[in-house]
Every structure is written in C-alpha cells, then in structure tokens.
Amino acid sequence: MNALRHHYGVATWVVLTVTCYFTAILWWPLALPAAILALQIEIIIAGLSLGSGNNLRAQSVILMFLLIAASVYFATTTTWVRYAAWQFLALVALNAIAGVIIGRIRILILGFAAVAPIALVLLWPHSVLAGIGILALSHMLILYPTLRPNAQWLGPVFTHFETDKRELWLTIDDGPNADTPALLDLLDRLGVKATFFVIGIIGERRPDFVREIVARGHSVGNHSQTHPSAWFWCAPPARVRSEIDDCNRTLATLANVAPRWFRAPVGMKNPFVHPALARRGMRLIGWTARGFDAVMHDADQVLERILPHVKPGAIIVLHQGREHSLRVIERVVVALQERGYSFVIPDDAVLRNTNR
Ligand SMILES: [Zn+2]
C-alpha cells in the first residue's frame, strides 16, 4: 500500500503534465496551462518545504486533492477537456478499488492499456489529440515501471529486509567469471556471506565455480540465462519465461540448487515478468544501493555512490567480472564493516518491498 501511495504521485503527475500539453496545444485559453504549470511549481515548493523526508508523499496527497477538484470542475464543462477529466476521475476510482482489493496497480495499468485504444476510436470524431493522449498515457504507465528499476507498479520488487541489527545483504551480479576463486577467497577473508546472481550461460562455462560458490556458504540467484540487457525490457512472455527457466535449469543441473530469487537484467521488468515469477514461486529482488560499478572503475567513487543509501536491512548490488571488481568489492565491504555493518543472507520472510 505504501508503494501504491508512493507511486500514485508520479502517476497523477504524468496525467497532469499530459493534460497541460494538450491544453497548450489546443486553441482554448492559454491561461489554463499556465495556471496548472504555476500550480505544479507551488506544489513542489510546498512539498520540499515540509522537509520530512516524505516530500513525494506530501506532494502526492496535495496533487490528488487538487486534481480531483479540478477534474470535477472540468468534467462539467463543454470543452474537450471534459474527456481528460472523466478519464482521470475514472482512473482515480479504479485505482482506489484496485488499491483496496489487491494493493497494487498492475491490473489497473494493463486494463487501462487495453481500454485506451477504444477511447482513441470513440474520441476520434471529437478530439484526435485527446484520444492519442490517452493512448500515450497508457503506454507511459507501462513503460515507466518497466524501465525504472525498483518501481513497484507491476508487482513487488524487494528492495530491503527487516532487521534490528546493522545487517546488510551483499549481492554480486553477472558471474561467475574468472575472478570467482579470488573473490571467494576475499569474501572468506572478510567473513562475508553473499548472494551471487548468476547468468546461466556464464555458469555453464565454469560449473565448478557455481558449485564452489555454494560450497563456501554463499547462495545463488537467477540473473537470467543470457542477460539480454538491451532488450529484456521488451521481451515477449515466452522469452521472459525461457530466460528464467533456462537459468533455473542450469543452476539445478550444475549445483543442485533451486533459486527462489530473480534479478532482472539491468533491473528492467515488463508486465510479463511478475506473473512468470509468481507461477514459479520466485521473487524479484531489487536493491537499496548500487554503485554503478559495472561502468565506474574507481572504488572510492563507487563507495560514495553507495554510502548515502546504506542503512540496516539494505540490499547492496555490486558486480564481478570486471578488471576492477575485486578492488571495488573489497573497498565497499571494508568501509561498511568499519561502520559496524555485517553481511547476511536474509530469509524470504524478512524481505520487504514497501517504502520506508
Ligand atoms: Zn546484470
């Protein structure tokens, strides 16, 4: 429910912005878009000045009331704006129902995407632009949570775990590469247990590495069979399923493990990923902090990126297989240990996807 509220602000924001564009494009008073834009700025300032760390939520609440009030007003006018207003009011009602019943908005987004083309046809004789706007909005509502890692509109993405100790979960993606033996030695030396999100075809090249990871007390997760980072976001259902299944099969064959965690390549997950995982009893694991160490080489810079997000129960994501990987992992782990943190592999029961 928290995630729903959190992201509802962004959804309403998109609606408002699109409405602004249309109002600006069409002939009817230019004062209207200017007024709405000015309103947005005020809302942002109001949200920021609250300074409670819940700015987004504060903005969401204010925006919601303003949008509902504005929509009720515009729904009673005779201009084309009433179509957008009714559409928004319907969205609010559906969202509330979805929120109460299922606690997430995946069904709503997909349902809206299914209805949007009909809206385009119905609106065609009146306002082509409004119809296209609704269609574009429905696409945006799918694209945003797909492309944005950790966005929860399409289903739970576990981003931290519950703990009252200074504990963290270290996850290492993209292996097991040639640096695996050295990495395992390093983790032993530092007294760290981690989870390796393995790419199936890389594991197939070195089955001994996969077995060694498990033998040394670490766990393995599914990071897809081929790691299609460029297009996993638009992969059709059959391909999503085969990426998950093939990697599961690989890990079962190589190390006799049944992964229950999946991390999407570059964190992108389209509407087909969650149903596939649910049917397999698996969970999508996101992260609390990432250091962009797949592209950044400097260990201190990576640490700087990670530190502000670290708190008890945080999930840290780092990568192996790069020339600088061991250096980065050692730097980050040591720095966090110096701050009193230890590294554990959490149980499913304490994984959390809500905001905090
Ligand atoms: Zn990856």
List keywords for this structure.
356 residues; alpha/beta; TIM Barrel; 2 domains; six-stranded parallel beta sheet; two-stranded antiparallel ribbon; 13 helices; 10% strand; binds zinc ion
Portion of residues in beta strands equals 5-15%
What's the shape?
elongated
How many strand elements? 10
- The domain tally reads 2
CATH fold assignment of the largest domain = TIM Barrel
Ligands in the structure?
Answer: zinc ion
Q: What is the H level of CATH, i.e. the homologous superfamily of the largest domain?
A: Glycoside hydrolase/deacetylase
The radius of gyration computed from the alpha-carbon positions, rounded to a whole number of angstroms, is: 23 Å
Level-2 CATH architecture of the largest domain = Alpha-Beta Barrel
Please mark out the parts with pLDDT under 50 across 5 or more consecutive residues, or reply none.
1-7, 49-54
Largest sheet: 6 strands, parallel
Q: Tell me the number of helical segments per DSSP (H or I, 4 or more residues long).
A: 13
N-to-C SSE string, H for helix and E for strand: HHHHHHEEHEHHEHEHEEHEHEE
* Arithmetic mean of pLDDT: 84
- Secondary-structure-based class equals alpha/beta
- Gap between N and C termini: 12 Å
Q: Briefly, what CATH class of the largest domain?
A: Alpha Beta
Helical residue percent? 55-70%
